[in-house]
Amino acid sequence: MATMALALGSCSPNTPAGEGFNGTKGEVKLLTLDPGHFHAALVQMYMYDEVDPTVHVYAPEGDDAQMHLDRIKIYNERSERPTSWNEVLYTGDDFLEKMIAEKKGNVVVLAGNNGKKTGYVKAAVDAGINVLSDKPMAIDQQKFAMLEQTLQEAPAKGSMVYDIMTERSEINNELQRVLVANKDLFGEMEKGTPEDPAITKESVHHFFKYVSGQPLRRPEWYFDVDQQGEGIVDVTTHLVDLVQCTVMPEQEIDYKKDIEFTSARRWATPIPSDKYRLVTGQDEYPDFLLPDVVNDTLQVYSNGEMNYRLNGVNVRVSVVWNFMAEVGTEGTGDTHYSVVKGTKANIEIRQGAEQGYKPMLYVVSKMSDDAEAESTLRRTLRSLSNEYPGLDVKKTADHEWQVVIPSEIVKTHEQRFSSVMQVYLDYLKQGEIPAWERSQMISKYYTTTKALSIAKE
């Protein structure tokens, strides 16, 4: 076992896990458990008054913990808004038991091996420790059953569990939901059909990319669907969450009554050995990946599509993972397409070549009078000016306008982790995760894991 500290930090007394929060300086004391994903560091991209600078990290021996500390070190040493985190590392086979026994914090951050995550959530809840977890918190139906029970028991055990849904605060997603809620502009949401759904959300990602200006190195387990989860239960978590926020905003969902599947499918992304070396830094496939290697090429089931109905609305969600962006588009990052269909207009997010691979929001009117439609859109945007200043419109085709969003109100992927942290800190001060949030978490993971089960049939 080993200990390590990055910088001098607070020596204030520990607040026992499970005690109430009221916004006092340093009252939230973070624990980081087995940080195998860079999202664990992004939670700490900025400092928060309520969060103590000392963070206790518990992890097994290996590269993951050191890479996590290196990312925090970059934040501490950057010239603009440097942080002052004091990372204290414990490594050993008993890292989980050690964290539970010592209880040096009251909120544990989870972002790493998804196959272990459900068990980590349960262990923390059973110990009365609050949980802020990266998605997904469950990658198959067996783990979903454990997660559902854990989330239902969490309030009685004094634990508040929340997952990191950064895409809610992406400005295009946020405005899409706001415009859909405006009846004058959007009308009523269509129901659609399985063949022509009312809501479609498609997401394209890349195994090799840059984060905070640095090439992202993936751990080897990331390519094992038994540890990372298949694509249909991983990135789709965000998309399903956005669907729920759009169809049933801040409402409790009963997945047994409100969700009905029509189909689901899955397929693999091939990763040859040279590309595997590029993204992992390892020369050979580990033994646990060999069953998925065909002709020296790893087959990763990272792609999937699900078709289902939520509260009677037909939805299609799909995710595709390529190894890296096409030549000439290396800076595109991940891309997203989304459409929500209404009786008066469709609200779309596009992020293709025409948009320079940057997400852009469009309103496609179904009304015959373009002048009236544009007037309604401008009036709608003016009504949002207090919360979303500077919005404008640009006509791009017949019956179609782009909502022009000023850069000042756009948050980067990294910055959106701060938005999630602020929401979670507010929930901690309120003393509970709202019932609708808890039900939507349960329904979300039911949806993704049920889709995997159907796709495998």
**Shape-level CATH architecture of the largest domain:** 2-Layer Sandwich
In the predicted model, the low-confidence regions spanning at least 5 consecutive residues are 3-18
- In total, how many domains does the architecture comprise? 2
CATH topology of the largest domain: Dihydrodipicolinate Reductase, domain 2
The Cα radius of gyration reads 22 Å
**Between the first and last Cα atoms, what is the distance in angstroms?**
44 Å
| Structural classification | alpha/beta
> Rough shape?
globular
Q: What percentage of amino acids are in beta strands?
A: 15-25%
Largest sheet: 10 strands, mixed
Helix amount: 25-40%
Count of individual helical segments:
13
User: What is the CATH class name of the largest domain?
Assistant: Alpha Beta
Number of strands: 18
Overall pLDDT level: 92
Can you characterise this structure?
With 457 residues, the chain is an alpha/beta fold. It folds into two domains: 30-163, NAD(P)-binding Rossmann-like Domain (Rossmann fold, 3-Layer(aba) Sandwich), CATH 3.40.50.720; 168-414, Dihydrodipicolinate Reductase, domain 2 (2-Layer Sandwich), CATH 3.30.360. 32% of the residues lie in helices and 24% in strands. It has helices at residues 39-42, 63-77, 95-102, 114-126, 141-153, 171-180, 183-186, 236-247, 255-258, 273-280, 370-382, 413-430, 435-456; strands at residues 30-33, 54-59, 86-91, 107-110, 130-133, 161-163, 199-206, 210-211, 214-215, 259-272, 293-294, 297-310, 313-322, 335-341, 345-350, 360-365, 392-397, 400-404. Strands 7, 10, 11, 12, 13, 14, 15, 16, 17 and 18 form a ten-stranded mixed sheet that branches. A six-stranded parallel sheet has the order 3-2-1-4-5-6, sandwiched between helices. A two-stranded antiparallel sheet has the order 8-9. Strand 11 and strand 12 (297-310) form a beta hairpin. The chain is globular, with a radius of gyration of 22 Å. The model is unreliable at 3-18 (pLDDT under 50).
